[in-house]
Specification:
Number of helices: 1
Largest sheet: 13 strands, antiparallel
Order of helices and strands: HEEEEEEEEEEEEEEEEEEEEEEEEEEE
Helix content: under 10%
Strand order of the largest sheet: 15-16-17-18-19-20-21-22-23-24-25-26-27
Shape: globular
Low-confidence stretches: 1-23
Length: 319
């Protein structure tokens, strides 16, 4: 009873403080605009530093900034403080245009376009509740048609995929089933293989950038499941065995760049190694249930020792 009273009293103090704060204004010096701005805390996102500067008293058009660096992340139309109507969305880190199109209740809804980091068109089509939904087209980094068809909840569902070089039909999807390819924002191939219900299901391959093989094996519901092989950036086999729910479960670490040792993992437990996207040794140590747990070492990308000690549930603990 006493604990409930304490908890209720504490919550009342906290929420009354926030409510009072929201009625106030803050004065922020925007480095990019080179002036001071009065911002109502109603339009200031607590704990994230995001804030909106409206152009008129009606608060229909405005610009949204990432508060810590004053980076522009959105400009367009609003309704009741939420993105509604036409607008442009920018990357948090680079301020480069990521999306241009229609919004409803703060999410992408209607027609819009997505862009690669270099500003070239990546996708154009329809959206629903923030995800690709409806008819749309995907384009390669070289602006050749890559996919033309129907999307449901962000996933390709019906349509045809084309070869980037020859423009010939490469695969066809029917009701979310078929063979598919995926690319990152730089236009690099990251996956090709079998799909079912918008997820990786069946046999497939993952790639580093420059189309170098990273993994080949079996998938279930979007994750590695079953037999598979992992490779480093130079093409050396680094693990061969079985996976469960995306994690190494049974198998051997065939090749270790630094020591040429062989390690083994059984039922998610053992001594294993991890590698970076460039195939460099990042971690070696004990595993439990497919995660780093126990004694281990971490390395810089050049191979120098960064950390040595205990790791429990991915948290470091010095010896």
């Amino acid at each position: 009873m006493l604990e409930n009273i304490k908890s209720s009293y504490f919550n009342k103090i906290i929420f009354s403080f926030i409510e009072d704060s929201r009625k106030l204004k803050i004065i922020k010096y925007n480095k990019r605009l080179q002036n001071e701005i009065d911002i109502s805390l109603i339009n200031y996102k607590l704990f994230s530093g995001r804030y909106i500067v409206f152009e008129t008293k009606e608060k229909i058009k405005g610009k949204e900034y990432f508060g810590y660096d004053d980076l522009l992340i959105f400009e367009g139309e609003y309704l009741n403080g939420k993105r509604n109507g036409k607008g442009k969305e920018y990357n948090y880190n680079s301020s480069k245009l990521e999306y241009e199109g229609e919004y409803l209740n703060g999410k992408r809804n209607g027609k819009g376009k997505e862009f690669y980091y270099n500003g070239k068109l990546r996708f154009e089509g329809e959206y629903l509740n923030g995800k690709r939904n409806g008819i749309g087209k995907e384009y390669s980094f070289e602006q050749k048609l890559r996919f033309d068809g129907e999307f449901i909840k962000g996933n390709k569902y019906n349509g045809k995929g084309y070869d980037d070089k020859t423009s010939e039909i490469k695969y066809e999807l029917k009701n979310g089933k078929g063979f598919i390819t995926e690319y990152d924002l730089n236009g690099c191939l990251i996956f090709e293989g079998e799909y079912l219900n918008g997820r990786r299901n069946g046999k497939g391959k993952e790639f580093y950038f420059a189309d170098k093989l990273k993994f080949e094996g079996e998938y279930l519901n979007g994750e590695r499941n079953g037999k598979g092989k992992e490779y480093d950036f130079e093409g050396n086999l680094i693990f061969e065995g079985e996976y469960l729910n995306g994690k190494r479960w049974n198998g051997k670490d065939v090749h270790n760049i630094n020591y040429n040792n062989k390690y083994e993992i059984k039922n998610g437990k053992g001594f294993m190694t991890d590698y970076t996207k460039l195939g460099n040794l990042f971690f070696e140590g004990e595993y439990l249930n497919g995660e780093k747990n126990g004694k281990g070492k971490e390395f810089y990308h050049r191979g120098e020792l960064l950390f040595e000690g205990w790791k429990k549930k991915r948290k470091r603990k010095r010896i």
